[in-house]
């Protein structure tokens, strides 16, 4: 699932490419992606893109005087940029699949490119395609006058990628909250932009268990959590800046210290990184760094809170 650092990099690149460009055509291949049926994206034809921004994990193309195309990339959505060929027709740009790019060399992969669900052509002949690699449609598009008209945007919590994010913002989310910490970090109404991968990285950096209840954290642990949350997200946003969007997945995977690293040594303590499944998600963690050496699969209801 795309998370805030990668979506920010996507927004930055598309902003540089699209500001001032006129939309010449919109092709909706999958009608279920359009959430504002009375205002389809085809109504944007002839308008110019004025800016591209991010709201949590959602992309926002500002169009014309006051319209916005808000795109939820969902679980497996991403973008594919196709350059115009020498004759000005649509080019065969590199596939930009957030779900699969970088996992194996393109020439060795038997996987077909993800299907295009929505395509937008511009006055320079280039095309922006939104894709979805999942078995069900998770990509969603809204045409609105204000991004907060999109429920997912209106409900977003504070964003750790925002320079104004404060310790008070974090405390309002965790203090008194009887919910497992990893779930809190991934709850978009609590904190915007964090998903499965970066929640693992944050908890490892903060030396906290994914299953401890937020309400059980001490003052010192909340401070560690704040520093880790801001540090991991802001550093990732900075590191992804300027990375071509077709390489973002590859770069993200390479940067992970614990997420997706089960069976490998922890880069801090050398212990073996473990997998733990709970609810509808999984976590990777270091027992020595995060749970006092206790394996979560053995912890049952004890839910160790932290490494001492």
UniProtKB/TrEMBL annotation:
Its cofactor is Zn(2+). The keyword Transferase does not apply. It catalyses: Hydrolysis of DNA containing ring-opened 7-methylguanine residues, releasing 2,6-diamino-4-hydroxy-5-(N-methyl)formamidopyrimidine. One of its GO terms (biological process) is base-excision repair. One of its GO terms (molecular function) is lyase activity. SMART domains: Fapy_DNA_glyco (SM00898), H2TH (SM01232). Keywords: DNA damage, DNA repair, DNA-binding, Glycosidase, Hydrolase, Lyase, Metal-binding, Multifunctional enzyme, Zinc, Zinc-finger. Signal peptide: none annotated. Residues 257-291 form the FPG-type domain. Pfam families: Fapy_DNA_glyco, H2TH, zf-FPG_IleRS. Residues 2-137 form the Formamidopyrimidine-DNA glycosylase catalytic domain. Belongs to the FPG family. This is Formamidopyrimidine-DNA glycosylase. It comes from Agromyces bauzanensis.
């Amino acid at each position: 699932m795309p998370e805030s650092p990668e979506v920010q990099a996507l927004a930055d690149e598309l902003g540089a490419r699209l500001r001032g460009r006129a939309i010449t055509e919109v092709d909706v291949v999958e009608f279920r992606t359009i959430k504002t049926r009375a205002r389809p994206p085809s109504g944007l034809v002839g308008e110019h893109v004025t800016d591209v921004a991010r709201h949590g994990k959602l992309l926002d193309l500002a169009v014309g005087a006051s319209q916005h195309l808000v795109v939820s990339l969902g679980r497996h959505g991403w973008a594919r940029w196709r350059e115009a060929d020498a004759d000005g027709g649509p080019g065969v740009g590199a596939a930009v699949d957030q779900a699969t790019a970088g996992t194996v060399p393109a020439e060795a992969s038997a996987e077909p490119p993800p299907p295009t669900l929505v395509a937008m052509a511009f006055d320079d002949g280039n095309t922006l395609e939104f894709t979805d690699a999942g078995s069900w449609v998770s990509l969603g598009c809204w045409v609105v006058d204000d991004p907060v008209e999109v429920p997912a945007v209106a409900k977003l919590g504070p964003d750790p990628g925002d320079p104004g994010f404060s310790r008070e913002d974090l405390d309002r989310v965790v203090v008194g909250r009887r919910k497992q910490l990893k779930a809190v970090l991934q709850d978009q109404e609590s904190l915007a932009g964090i998903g499965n991968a970066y929640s693992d990285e944050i908890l490892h950096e903060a030396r906290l268990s994914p299953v401890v209840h937020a309400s059980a954290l001490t003052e010192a642990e909340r401070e560690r959590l704040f520093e880790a949350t801001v540090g991991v997200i802001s550093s990732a946003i900075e590191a992804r800046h300027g990375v071509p969007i077709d390489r973002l997945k590859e770069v993200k995977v390479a940067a992970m210290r614990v997420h997706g690293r089960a069976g490998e040594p922890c880069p801090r303590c050398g212990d073996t990184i473990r997998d733990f499944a709970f609810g509808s998600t999984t976590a990777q963690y270091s027992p020595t760094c995060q749970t006092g050496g206790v394996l979560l699969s053995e912890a049952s209801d004890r839910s160790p809170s932290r490494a001492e």
